[in-house]
Amino acid sequence: MFGQSKAVIFEPYGRRRSRRTVPRWLVLLLSGIVVGAGGVVFVQERYLPPRLSADASAQLRSAFEQAERERLRLKGELDGTAKRLQAELDDKRRLADELGASRDSVERLRELASSLVAALPPDPHGGAVEVRAARFTAEGGALAYDVVLTRDRAGSKPLAGVMQLVVSGASGRGADTTATLKPVSISLASFESVRGSLPLPEGFKPRQTTITVLDRVGGKLLGRRVINVK
User: Fold this and answer.
1) Does residue 107 belong to any structural domain of this protein?
2) Longest Cα separation, the chain
3) Is 151 within the bounds of a domain?
4) CA separation for the pair 132, 89 (Å, rounded)
5) Rounded CA gap, 175 and 210, in Å?
6) What does the pLDDT read at residue 24?
7) Domain count, the chain
8) pLDDT value for 190
């Protein structure tokens, strides 16, 4: 109770507050932020392209949008062209298939026609070119003809020639006469059916037709036959 007493310090303005220092980590953090921001600004100003103004940015966006619209338009045109090309390819493939089928049909018909021609009676006069069958009708001042010609020694190259028709009958005055009609060009492989019509003289009434096959007009005789006109 009566031991040594401690000195009492009198502070008239109250107890002094202890002095606080800024933490070191906060100083380093703020310094890093400042240095980083300065580096970004330095790099941007020194090495990067200059920043665009508001007008330049608006123009750039407008140009981009226009380019995008043009790209979409060209893409649409390209898609349309691709569709048309595909349609044309499909049509070409279809036509090729139809052509192949038509060729097969023509070949079958030709084989059938060859069989029918072989069944026709032979030309009694023979010759390099035989007149196997013929049909003539007089209608409207013209002579309609349908003549089947065959060639026994058919080569790889068709035989070119002419068919001359000489018609005998009565003239408009009733007198017997003959009329030589215009020559008909022919191309004969192994067989050929020649059809058509030729004008007759006015008032002429045909009774009989002589079919003459020549290598050219006024040339070598290849075959001949006489057929009545119906």
Assistant:
1) no
2) 189
3) yes
4) 46
5) 19
6) 77
7) 1
8) 86
For residue 208 the two structure tokens come to 């009989």
From 184, 177, 116, select the one nearest 144 (Cα to Cα).
184
Q: What is the pLDDT of residue 153?
A: 73
Q: What is the pLDDT of residue 186?
A: 94
Residues 207, 168 contacting (CB under 8 angstroms): yes
Radius of gyration of the chain (CA): 55
**Segments of the chain scoring below 70 in pLDDT:** 1-20, 22, 38, 40-52, 154-156
Determine if the pTM surpasses 0.90. Answer: no
Residue 151's CATH number:
2.60.40.10
Contacts of 159 (CB under 8 A, 6+ apart): 129, 151, 187, 188, 189, 215, 222
Residue 165's domain comprises 129-228
What's the gap between Cα 135 and its chain centre?
Answer: 43
User: Residue 1 has what pLDDT?
Assistant: 46
Q: How many CB atoms lie within 10 A of CB 222?
A: 21
Q: What is the pLDDT of residue 116?
A: 80
168 assigned to some structural domain: yes
Distance CA 223, CA 214 (A): 7
Cα(143)–Cα(206) distance, integer angstroms:
8
Residue 153, C-beta contacts closer than 8 angstroms, at least 6 positions apart? 128
Residue 141 lies in a domain: yes
Gap between the Cα atoms of 205 and 201, Å rounded: 9
- Report how far apart, in Å, the C-alpha atoms of 204 and of each of 174, 201, 221, 228 are: 9, 5, 27, 15
